[in-house]
Design brief:
The complex is a heterodimer of chains A (113) and B (113).
Chain A (H helix, E strand, L loop, with lengths): L3 E2 L4 E5 L4 E3 L2 E2 L6 E7 L6 E6 L5 E3 L5 E5 L4 E6 L8 E8 L7 E2 L3 E6 L1
Parallel strand pairs in A: 2-12
Antiparallel strand pairs in A: 1-4, 3-9, 5-6, 5-10, 7-8, 8-9, 10-11, 10-12
Chain B lengths: L2 E5 L2 E4 L5 E8 L4 E9 L3 E10 L2 E4 L6 E6 L2 E6 L8 E9 L7 E2 L3 E5 L1
Parallel strand pairs in B: 2-11
Antiparallel strand pairs in B: 1-3, 3-8, 4-5, 4-9, 5-6, 7-8, 9-10, 9-11
The chains are: A mainly beta (113), B mainly beta (113).
Chain lengths: 113, 113
């Protein structure tokens, strides 16, 4: 079945460590790619998005993601995490047609001070 | 600016009772509207989406239904709730049939006892 996969369900890091969260999707054709973040007690908000052009996308709060078409991947990275990055991160894909957004299962990130 | 509201924020209902969750969007016209359910470890599951008044697409078979009686109103309903309907329900919108991000409401926490 077509889907979005996030490999890590829980990640625990110390402050200043580097972060990479994996995301793979199985849709063919043109896709739009997103990372959303949900901080504790808050609603979902957009971290970054890729529609076309430069496959390296920069988002808010120092996050970036790289679209690798050949690998059907859109991994999220941050060189140095902070305690305030503790949150749940969701990868999402809009398949061709742009009508719906399909989410991965999410990754809970805990950053210890 | 556009805003999205959903209510009630919290709901506790007995098994077998009906359900109605409402969502309205302001500041835009002819949006795509979505209902998601968020469960721990399972990410966001798309339940229904609508591209216009009276047009409803169901993504998964379930005990729930959706309706769009007005352009900016989206309602999630059930005639008889099951225990398994408990969860966190999110309404979202995006601009028509074009690439773009989803904007989420605050969510409704449903507990079925």
């Amino acid at each position: 079945a077509q889907s979005v996969s996030q490999h890590n369900h829980h990640v625990i890091l110390s402050e200043a460590a580097s972060l990479e969260l994996g995301c793979n999707y199985s849709y063919g054709g043109t896709v739009n790619l997103f990372w959303y973040v949900q901080y504790p007690g808050q609603h979902l908000q957009l971290l970054l998005k890729y529609f076309s052009g430069d496959p390296l996308v920069k988002g808010i709060k120092g996050f970036e993601a790289e679209f690798i078409k050949s690998k059907f991947s859109f991994n999220l990275r941050k060189p140095s995490v902070q305690w305030s990055d503790t949150a749940e991160y969701f990868c999402a894909v809009t398949p061709t047609g742009f009508q719906k957004l399909v989410f991965g299962t999410g990754t809970r990130l805990l950053v210890s001070p | 600016s556009q805003t999205i509201h959903q209510w009630p924020a919290t709901l506790v209902q007995p098994v077998g009772s009906p359900l109605s969750l409402e969502c309205t969007v302001e500041g835009t016209s002819n949006p795509n509207l979505y209902w998601y359910r968020q469960a721990a470890g399972r990410g966001l599951q798309l339940l229904f989406y609508s591209v216009g008044i009276g047009q409803i697409s169901s993504e998964v078979p379930q005990n729930l239904s959706a309706s769009r009686p007005q352009d900016r109103q989206f309602i999630l309903s059930s005639k008889k709730l099951l225990l398994s309907d408990s969860g966190f329900y999110l309404c979202a919108w995006k601009l028509g049939n074009q690439a773009g991000e989803l904007f989420f409401g605050e969510g409704s926490r449903l507990t079925v006892l």
